[in-house]
From TrEMBL:
Active site: 69 (proton acceptor)
Domain of life: Bacteria
Coiled coil residues, start to end: none
Keyword Hydrolase among UniProt keywords: yes
Task of the protein: Excises uracil residues from the DNA which can arise as a result of misincorporation of dUMP residues by DNA polymerase or due to deamination of cytosine.
SUPFAM superfamilies with a match to the protein in the record: Uracil-DNA glycosylase-like (SSF52141)
GO biological process per UniProt: base-excision repair, AP site formation via deaminated base removal
Residue ranges of the TM segments: none
EC numbers on record: 3.2.2.27
Full protein name: Uracil-DNA glycosylase
Keywords (A to Z) from UniProt: Cytoplasm, DNA damage, DNA repair, Hydrolase
Organism: Neolewinella xylanilytica
Compartment annotation: Cytoplasm
Length: 227
């Protein structure tokens, strides 16, 4: 487990977030995680907690897709929002994301849920909470991660240009206040969950709009296929 003074995170992110590591909440967070890990199963594995950061350096971020919690069932969480390893069943929300991409862009629906290819192209797949206790969704929502990930969103807003922020659902949409909408594109809609996808997620054309915006600003579009 990382300590407040020796966080294993990609160098550009470490520099961008340096002030956070010395704040009281971060030390409290590290102690909390050590205590939780001592007698509970925590997801994702320690080496994948900062996977989104380590796969997508801040200066390469083109798109931010914000989730809320890591998956809490065994074998699912991999440190990238909405993503699961290739041998794991595609979760319902991700199936709906794939459906929207198919309907909007005509891409085939993938047979796996590993979104690493997106992350490697500059899609920052951030969860607001970076850890969770097994089978207990929301169990770490007061752990301190919210301060760290809010700082991460603000860092992207402050340190990058012409980035697309996809905010789905009420929780994510509240984070719009952290983003300078005069410099970036903020896209908001309902969440892709089966409970809300038909209330504004389907048909939002966020993936097409993101690529159009990136092209307009001289950036390569994202290949939203993951096959």
């Amino acid at each position: 487990m990382a300590t407040a003074t020796n966080v294993q995170i990609e160098p550009s992110w470490k520099e961008a977030l340096e002030p956070e590591f010395s704040k009281p909440y971060f030390g409290t967070l590290i102690r909390f995680l050590k205590e939780e890990k001592a007698d509970k199963t925590i997801y994702p594995p320690g080496s994948l907690i900062f996977n989104a950061y380590n796969t997508t350096p801040i200066d390469q971020v083109k798109v931010v897709i914000l989730g809320q919690d890591p998956y809490h069932n065994p074998g699912q969480a991999m440190g990238l929002s909405f993503s699961v390893p290739q041998d794991v069943t595609v979760p319902p929300s991700l199936r709906n994301i794939y459906k929207e991409i198919h309907d909007s862009l005509g891409l085939p629906i993938p047979n796996h849920g590993d979104l690493t290819k997106w992350a490697e192209q500059g899609v920052f797949l951030l969860n607001a909470m970076l850890t969770v206790e097994r089978n207990k969704p929301g169990s770490h929502k007061r752990s301190g991660w919210q301060y760290f990930t809010d700082a991460s969103i603000k860092a992207v807003s402050d340190k990058t240009e012409h980035t697309v922020f996809m905010l789905w659902g009420a929780f994510a949409r509240k984070k719009a206040e952290l983003v300078d909408s005069t410099r970036h594109l903020v896209l908001e809609s309902a969440h892709p969950s089966p409970f809300s996808a038909d209330k504004g997620f389907f048909g939002n054309d966020h993936f097409q709009k993101a690529n159009e915006y990136l092209r307009q600003h001289g950036k390569a579009p994202i290949d939203w296929g993951v096959q």
